[in-house]
């Protein structure tokens, strides 16, 4: 989607546990010398279901940094019960996973990182609550 000499931003439709794992592994294999920040959005009815979340266990282990985003507004629209951050962290079985429910906070966090020698992988079947990835890549200096 966007890249320069030292970083890249990719958007992938991956959202199931097996697809996340395969996409992350492929991105790491392509750029083994770069740190991989993998961000996935819980967006589908199944992924936002507490009972299904357990399926994500270990699927983001190969990412150097793992981020999960979900919109509380999406839960409301889909008439689903609230999803608690601790349940998400527990389900992915990764102590250092970062969870965001607010698009602006996610962007703020991503903008705080130094992108030299890093790639950003955005994975979702949704839109990260309307996040413009082209604008994000420009703001991160990945263009």
Give your account of this protein's structure.
This protein has one domain (2-139): Protein-Tyrosine Phosphatase, Chain A (Alpha-Beta Complex). It has 6 helices and 6 strands; from the N terminus they run ββαβαβααβαβα. It has helices at 17-30, 50-53, 72-77, 85-92, 103-112, 133-139, and strands spanning 2-3, 7-12, 35-41, 65-69, 98-100, 118-123. The longest helix is centred in the first third of the chain and has 14 residues, at 17-30. The mean pLDDT is 95.
In short:
With 143 residues, the chain is an alpha/beta fold. The protein is built from 6 helices and 6 strands; from the N terminus they run E-E-H-E-H-E-H-H-E-H-E-H.
Residue runs with pLDDT of under 50 for 5 or more positions: none
CATH topology: Protein-Tyrosine Phosphatase, Chain A
Structural class: alpha/beta
Q: Helix-strand pattern, N to C? A: EEHEHEHHEHEH
Strand order of the largest sheet: 1-2-6-3-4-5
The proportion of strand residues reads: 15-25%
Helix content: 25-40%
> What characterizes the major β-sheet?
6 strands, mixed
Question: Could you name the CATH homologous superfamily?
Answer: Mur ligase, C-terminal domain
CATH class category label: Alpha Beta
Cα end-to-end separation: 9 Å
Overall pLDDT, averaged?
Answer: 95
Instruction: Report the principal-axis shape.
Output: globular
What is the radius of gyration computed over CA atoms, rounded to a whole number of angstroms? 14 Å
- Helices, by number, come to 6
What is the chains' assembly state?
single chain
């Amino acid at each position: 989607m966007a890249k320069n000499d030292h970083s890249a931003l990719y958007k992938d439709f991956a959202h199931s546990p097996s697809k996340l794992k395969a996409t992350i592994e492929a991105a790491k294999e392509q750029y083994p010398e770069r740190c991989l920040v993998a961000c996935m959005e819980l967006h589908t009815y199944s992924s936002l279901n507490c009972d299904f979340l357990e399926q994500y266990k270990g699927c983001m282990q190969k990412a150097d940094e793992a981020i999960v985003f979900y919109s509380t507004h999406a839960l409301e629209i889909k008439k689903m019960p609230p999803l608690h951050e601790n349940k998400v962290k527990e389900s992915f079985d990764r102590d250092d996973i970062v969870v965001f429910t607010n698009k602006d906070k996610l962007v703020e966090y991503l903008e705080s990182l130094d992108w030299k020698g890093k790639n950003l992988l955005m994975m979702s079947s949704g839109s990260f609550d309307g996040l413009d990835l082209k604008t994000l890549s420009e703001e991160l200096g990945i263009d």
